[in-house]
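Input.
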Amino acid sequence: MATVPFAINVFLRAHIHALQKYYDVTLVANGSAEDLIDSFGDHVSFVPLPIERKISLKNDICALFRLWRLFRKERFDGVHSIMPKAGLLSMLAARLAGVRLRVHTFTGQVWANKKGFRRFVLKSFDKVLAMNATQVFADSHSQCRFLIENNIVKARAIDVLGEGSVVGVNIKRFEYSQKVWQQIRSEHQIPGDAVVFMFMGRLTRDKGLMDLSRAFSAAARQNANIHLLIVGSDEEGLEQEFYSLAKNFPGRVHRAGFAEHPEEYLSAADVFCLPSYREGFGSVLIEAAAVGLPSIASRIYGITDAVEDGVTGILHHPASDREIAEAMLQLASNEGLRRQMGGAARQRAIEKFSEEHVTEAWVDFYRRSFSTAGQA
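Output.
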């Protein structure tokens, strides 16, 4: 169960391919089967169900009733959800319908950097979600501790599959390519000797992009060889910020929209930046690591699992553009350090966070769960 097919495409595709060898799998999301990247096999079906990401009491009650009716009709052995709204509604509906195995995977908390009544309400939703699940997973060990410390879930009811990450990384796909390096740099007129710092993801303030913009301004004034590449769709009208930045540093700020092949842009970069204020794990950091990039990222829960400070990258305090700029200058002036950290990052991604490693942990969980119930 996910709110939108996009989450299935990004997070669950490899797991579904593996699970369908042993089980019948039904996918539920707001959309259509055509929205899915893959056409799965005979043991996978899709049920469209209107569910909105934003809170809407009337629509949410309708979605809850539809889910309850679906679960009662199909008599599923288990329900597994990701994304907050999908998790809340599906865990409630599954419990009311008598589904024995009710699992939710947390991939980050929207209330983590909220305050006041909004934080209280969103936090309460996660508590209700966890209370109605029989098993909760977090996609990082630090997120797991955060949820326990904030009394969202008891320690005995939450775990992490494998080393963390809800999806892992496709090591064969995310691999450095010299040919692609030349292609992307040529398209964006980036000099071959430039040191390219890259952000890739949704352009939102929560990702710390204003901090990154200020940090780049400070670092770029001291090192004329530093360039910035921003890849992703603008969700909060931040385009003007980078347009102004590009005017101040002509030819050194480069912009691309949503990338269907993110590994190509990663190949063209030297350092990946994620100055985010909240992350469940930061899967993009592992994708960058697989390509051989060191990272500069916030020292927050989730990210501390994806980046080993001083080994695979440099961590900074959240919202500290000064620390970000210092890290940029350090890595820009030391190619040997970049290569050393990038090599360690790729090795760590292969050993701990490969797609195969994470998928096997998912399959093993279901084997153990259904064997305990005498179903396999």
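The domain at 178-352 is CATH 3.40.50.2000 (Rossmann fold).
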